[in-house]
Predict the structure of Ferredoxin-like protein.
Amino acid sequence: MKLKKKKGQSHEPLSPELRATLPKVNINDLVVSIKYYVDEDFAHIQIRDHSVCTRCATKPCLDFCPVQVFTADAQGKIMVGYQACVECGSCRIGCPLKNVDWQLPRGGHGVAYKFG
Ligand code: SF4
Ligand code: SF4
């Protein structure tokens, strides 16, 4: 069954059948188990050209990042709180205008996941 997109939504919604097969994961439970080694001297995620963002109608970066690294200020400028990045990689493919410069954090920095 094909679901209709909501107004302003740029991606196809998941069908209820597919959603039912996904594990129940609460992102907040996962985030509190992560240890961050923040590099205060180097932002590994940056906007390449802010003028490009002004032409981006749907601004999906405000939705696809699981930890809201991307926010818009009062003027609509996209801000990047790279310190909270959990390195999921979504912004490498999610920006329709390829306007996110994504790199891995420098050695010794980034997130460390604990499992179990
Ligand atoms: S999706 Fe890409 S181009 Fe659009 S607002 Fe976000 S960073 Fe800018
Ligand atoms: S890699 Fe994932 S967590 Fe990090 S900024 Fe991109 S979308 Fe957000």
About this structure: Helices lie at 16-21, 27-31, 50-53, 61-64, 90-94. The domain at 35-112 is CATH 3.30.70.20 (Alpha-Beta Plaits).
